[in-house]
Amino acid sequence: MASDLHAAIFIAKQERHKNLFLNYRNLNNFPVELLRDEGMQFLERLFMKRNSLTTLPENLAQKLPNLIELYLHSNNIAIIPQAIGELVKLQSLDLSDNALQIICPEIGQLRSLRHLRLANNQLKFLPQELGDLRELETLDVSMNLLRTLPERLHQCLSLQCLTADRNLLHCLPRQLCLLPDLNELSMAANCLTSLPLDLGRSMELQFVFVDNNAQLKALPSYLYNKVIGCSGCGLAAQISDVKQLCLMLGDVTVPLPYEVKAIGSETDRVLPLEELACRVLHAAHNWTDVKFLTPFLLPKSLLDVVRWPLGHCHRCSQPMFTIVYPKLFPLRETALAGVHKRTTVSFVAYCCSSQCLRTFDLQG
C-alpha cells in the first residue's frame, strides 16, 4: 500500500498532474511526499476522502499554492490549522464527516471559496468570519450541534444553497431573507418554532425544506407559491396485511423489505436490488456499537456505505442508499394554485417509489 502511494505521488510530480486521487488509502498522516522540496506547485485538485487523517500540515498553502479544490470527506480531522486561510485560490473545500468541533476564523480569508461542506461534524458554532466569503455559493453545515447561525452570514451575497438539517437551531436569522441569490434553504429536523415573516419574499428563493420541526406550526405566507419540500415525514411505516417475507442465512433470519411483495407486478415500481440489499443490511447491523460484528462480513468501504444512508424516505423515513433525489412539485401545479391566504400548506414530494407520493398538511 505504501509503495503504491509513493508511486502515485511520484508519477503525479513527474508528469505534473493537476489532479491527484488519494482516496481510500488508510492514511493516518498527510503524505510527506507532497510537501518535500517545492511541493506540487501545479496541483489544483486533491482528493483524500475516506482516510484516517487527524489534521492538516501548517505549510499546506506553501507547498500547494494553486490548490482549487480540496476534498477531505470522511476522515478524523479534529483541527483545521490557521494557515488554511492562505489557500487564496481555493474554491471548493469538503470537510464533511470528520471530528471538527471548531472552525478557525481564518477560514474567512478564503475569498475565492464557492463551496464549503462541513456536514456531520461536532460543531457547536460557526465563526462570524464566514460572512467574509462573498463568493460562497454552497454551504452545508447539516448534522452538527449548531444552535445558531452566524449573524453575518447574510453578507455572503453569492450564497445560493444553505443546508443546515439535523442541528439544534431554534430560529433562523431574519437577515438571511436579504440574501439576493438564495435559491434553496434546508432546515429540516431542527428545533424551529417560527420562521421570519419575510422568508420567501425574494423571487430567487424557490426551495424550502423545514419538515421534522415539531414545534413549527405555521409558515410565512410568502412561501405559499414556492416549492416547499419534505425530505422525510417522520411517520411510521404503514404495515401491510401481506405477510412479510424472510430470508434464511444459516441460523440468521432476515426480514425482507415490504417492497419485495411488489416484484412481478406491472403496476408497481420495483426498487433496484442494490437498494433493497443496502436497506436489509442497514437494518441487520447494530449501529449503536461500532465494534459489534454481525454475520455479514463486509469490506470497510461497503460497511461505510450501508452504515450511513444518503437520505430517508419521504413517506416512512426508511433509509435510502441509491435513490435519494426528491422530485418536487411547485404549488402552482397543485390544487393550491393561486391560493395565498389559506392557513394550510401542502408538502408534495416524490420518494423511492410511486407508492410514496403523498401530500402532507401543515396547519397554521
TrEMBL record:
Gene3D superfamilies: Ribonuclease Inhibitor
Pfam annotation, one family: LRR_4
SUPFAM superfamilies xref list: L domain-like
Keyword Zinc-finger: no
A GO CC term attached to the entry: cytoplasm
Glycoprotein listed as a keyword: no
Keywords: Leucine-rich repeat, Repeat
InterPro entries named in the record: Leu-rich_rpt (IPR001611), Leu-rich_rpt_4 (IPR025875), Leu-rich_rpt_typical-subtyp (IPR003591), LRR_dom_sf (IPR032675), LRR_domain-containing (IPR050216)
Name this protein carries in UniProt: Leucine-rich repeat-containing protein 28
Organism: Culter alburnus
Taxonomic lineage from the root: Eukaryota, Metazoa, Chordata, Craniata, Vertebrata
